[in-house]
C-alpha cells in the first residue's frame, strides 16, 4: 500500500510539474522572432493576409512575426520545410484549401497534413470570381459555356498551380458544366492573373479579393462569383449557380498550422491571438470591403474542419478526374 501511495504522490508531482511548465511556456512564448512560411508566391491572397496577420501579432505579442514566401511544387516545398522544422512554435505554416485538396490530388508527398501538422486556427474565407479576357466572345456565363462546348479543348483557363483553389474551382466547373477547357498552371496567382489580363489564356477563377478591382477596371469581364449568394463586392455579378451551373460553389480559405508535437500551450496561445485579431471590428470591416470573411474556431474545431475538407475535395478529385499535369 505504501508503495502504491508513493507512486500516486510521484504521479501527482509530475502532473503538477507539467502543469507549471505548461503555464510558464504559455506566458513566455514567444521569446524570439517567429517565422510564418507562406508556400505560395508573393502578391496573392495568402501572402497579403499573412502579412496583415503577422503585423497584428507582432504588435500584440511584442515579438516579430516574419513572413517568408517559399513557393514551389504546388505549395509542397514550403510546406515540407515547416514539417521538418522544430515543433516549438517558432515556425508556422500559412495554409489554404490547397493543402486539403493535395491530400488526395498528390498522395505521394513527403508529408501528410494531419499526421505531420497540428491545427492552430483558421483566418478567413472569400468567394472566387470567374473572369474572361474581353476578347472572348461571351458576354455571360451561358454564352461562355456554349462557346466552350462548341470548341472543346480549344479554350484555356489559368491557375496558380495544381491543387490550388483556382485549379479545383476550374475542374469543378468543367465537371458540372460538361465542358472541356484546358488547364494552364502557373507558378503563382500573379502570373496566372497577368496571363488572363494579357489575353494569353481565356479564363480564370480567381480570389475575388484580388480580381474584383481588375474586373471593375475593365481589364477582364466578370461572368460569375462562386458563393451561394451574390457578393457584396460585385452585387451586379450573378453567382455561377444562378447564371448557368446550379449547385456550383467554391471558396478559398486560409489558416495556420504548426509542426506536429508543438506544445499545446503554444497552440492555445496562438489560437487565442489569431481569434482576437480576426474578431476585430475594424479588420472585419476592411476585409468585408475586399470580399473576405473572418473565421474563428478553437484548435479542435479547426482540426475537424480540416478533416471534413480533405474528404470533400477527395470526392471532387474523384468526380472531376482532376490530375496533376
Strand count, sense and barrel status of the largest sheet are:
10 strands, mixed
Briefly note the CATH topology name of the largest domain.
Answer: D-Maltodextrin-Binding Protein, domain 2
Which bin fits the share of residues in helices?
A: 40-55%
Write down the domain tally.
2
- Mean pLDDT over the residues: 92
Q: Distance between termini?
A: 67 Å
Unreliable stretches: 17-22
User: Which overall shape is indicated by the principal axes computed on the Cα atoms?
Assistant: elongated
> Mind telling me the C-alpha Rg?
22 Å
Instruction: Give the topology string: H per helix, E per strand.
Output: HEHEHEHHEHEHEHEHEHEHHEH
The CATH class name of the largest domain reads Alpha Beta
Structural class: alpha/beta
* CATH superfamily (homologous) name of the largest domain: Bordetella uptake gene, domain 1
Description:
By secondary structure, this protein is α/β, with parallel strands linked by helices. It contains 13 helices and 10 strands. Strands 1, 2, 3, 4, 5, 6, 7, 8, 9 and 10 form a 10-stranded mixed beta sheet that branches. Mean pLDDT is 92; it is low at 17-22.
Q: TL;DR of this structure?
A:
The protein has 13 helices and 10 strands.
Chain-wise SSE layout:
Elements: H1 2-28, E1 34-38, H2 45-61, E2 65-69, H3 76-83, E3 91-96, H4 97-105, H5 113-116, E4 117-132, H6 141-150, E5 156-159, H7 165-177, E6 182-185, H8 189-197, E7 203-207, H9 208-216, E8 221-225, H10 240-243, E9 251-259, H11 264-278, H12 281-290, E10 292-294, H13 299-320
Helix pairs in contact: 1-11, 2-11, 4-13, 7-13
